Amino acid sequence: xxxxxxxxxxxxxxxxxxxxxxxxxxxxxxxxxxxxxxxxxxxxxxxxxxxxxxxxxxxxxxxxxxxxxxxxxxxxxxxxxxxxxxxxxxxxxxxxxxxxxxxxxxxxxxxxxxxxxxxxxxxxxxxxxxxxxxxxxxxxxxxxxxxxxxxxxxxxxxxxxxxxxxxxxxxxxxxxxxxxxxxxxxxxxxxxxxxxxxxxxxxxxxxxxxxxxxxxxxxxxxxxxxxxxxxxxxxxxxxxxxxxxxxxxxxxxxxxxxxxxxxxxxxxxxxxxxxxxxxxxxxxxxxxxxxxxxxxxxxxxxxxxxxxxxxxxxxxxxxxxxxxxxxxxxxxxxxxxxxxxxxxxxxxxxxxxxxxxxxxxxxxxxxxxxxxxxxxxxxxxxxxxxxxxxxxx
Length: 393
Known about the structure:
Blueprint: H1 19-37, E1 43-44, E2 51-52, H2 55-102, E3 105-110, E4 114-116, E5 120-129, E6 134-137, E7 143-144, E8 147-154, E9 158-159, E10 165-174, E11 179-183, E12 187-191, E13 197-201, E14 205-210, H3 234-259, H4 274-287, H5 296-315, H6 324-333, H7 338-356, H8 363-383
Helix pairs in contact: 1-2, 4-5, 4-8, 5-7, 5-8, 6-7, 7-8
């Protein structure tokens, strides 16, 4: 037991071996000293220098050896028991110290201890705990004792440098009466990793609420009479001027857009008579020289269409996309004179003969059909001297 070292405790300010265990160690040392120092003396013959043993001394030596053996066994058992008690005591002491170290720390603080009526006081309730613990603040109602709760919120969890976590509940309160008022205790529930729960309560805090009246003023003053404020019409005048200016600008813009010079419209073309239109069309057709190129069918087709458009314009009948039978039937319906009807019918039949019967007329017949178209236009113009606008019918 003398080899046991009293090392420094892992907890500052504390010894690793408690005083009670030190007492047990001292007792064990004292019990072990006789066994370590006891040795059986041997007699020596001073004459011969050899050790001699008498029968009595041999019996005493046997009893002493047996007694020493029993004593050694008892000492070993005592030493083992003391070591077990020492280990058990150290484990209990260390676990108690560790549990005290890991216990959550609850702290409450206020930003002012002396306020006036209606002032807002901020109360902060902070809990420092191990990261394995879970903390839940009790909900805060509309009042907190004699205080009115203005607002409350839980701040985000902060991680401290030593590995602990800190959670803070911030409550803003106000009082509307004077005196020494007390902020009641606030409860916090702490849950461990094993499922165990514990309720922590903060210490009540006293705050002095003073009146806003100071000195000799112990009553509130009456309200001052309503002040007479002279009417200021300048903003209204500025508004009227702005509206009038805007209206004048709109008027001038409208006059400008209305009086702006527009591009002159093109002069209307002179109305040409149906006779002029027909004659110009025949002249353009002859200038194309379709007959010289052998396009008789196309020449007779366009010539007959020019004459029918002219007749339709003069007589007031539909001429576009009409066959000879349909066109002549319409002429009979409007009571065209027999001579004119016969001249028109013969002209159209001769044209159809080339268009549909693949008849190839000679040069003399072509000149005759063109002369007949000129004569038909002249004949129809004698009936009506009034020019008419050519229109698609």
